[in-house]
Amino acid sequence: MLSAQTHSVFFSETEVRKRYVSWQRGEPDREWACLTLLARHAPGVAPVPLRRETDPDGAPVVVMSRLPGDPLGGAPLTPAQTMALGRALRKTYDVPLGAALGAGIAERVLGPRTLPAVVSEWLGGCGSLERCRDPRLVRLGVDAALSWLADPAVLPEPRPSVLGVSDRKPANTLWDGRTCRLVDFEDSGLSDPAYELADLVEHIAGRLGGLVEPGAQIDAVGLSSEQEDRVQTYRPLWACFWLAMLLPGSGGFRRNPAGTTELQVEHLLGLIGEAHPRWAAVR
Length: 283
What we know:
Elements: E1 2-3, E2 7-11, E3 15-20, H1 27-41, E4 49-54, E5 60-65, E6 70-71, H2 79-93, H3 97-102, H4 115-124, H5 135-150, E7 162-164, E8 173-175, E9 180-182, E10 189-191, H6 193-202, H7 204-207, H8 214-221, H9 225-245, H10 251-255, H11 260-275
Antiparallel strand pairs: 1-2, 2-3, 3-5, 4-5, 6-8, 7-10, 8-9
Helix pairs in contact: 2-8, 4-5, 4-9, 5-9, 5-11, 6-9, 9-11
């Protein structure tokens, strides 16, 4: 059994039984709808939804097919893995928008329309930073992030036009030696491909270990040049998110080595300066 904050997962030889511990945000409905849509329009990319159940204690369950392969994340992605992941993501983005809307799929959790305000609230409510290795630097980073988020010119207009997968930590991709397949759709929904790629390359689980090479992964999905530019404008937003996740009092702060928060600040300030030269002076 593998446990997570919102669910527990049980495996048989052919099935995966995902029991939701928390489902107030509609996680089971979202996962079932996305898996059903993918089974119809992008077969082979994700598990096939088999049935829905309810445990005696009222907990909802989604039963799906078990996919071959092992989770990515033990080492940097090889060129073959990068290309295979790009193909899998491309197939999800090619699901017809009309089909997603017809299935009642709404914008993903923490989507492009909601994340900036949410991150601003989190950062604005941060408490003492004295437990950080360098409180002054972290305060500089928090203040810079809040100022950047408050600037209406830094982020593009949201375009929720594709099925976004959400939570793209490497372990949510299975690799069988030839093909990448995607799991964990409880937070998925409509999104912007540029926003999704920024989420993937900035995910702390992949970035800290150098597991994902941003340029190669973006190229592997096959975005237009205009979409690639949008990825770069969205990357600082996700870096702000991960800064919030690494502040004292968070699980990320407890789980990661001392100094990780400061490294995230340096990364964020670099991204802000690259994407928006007028912000380079905050360093």
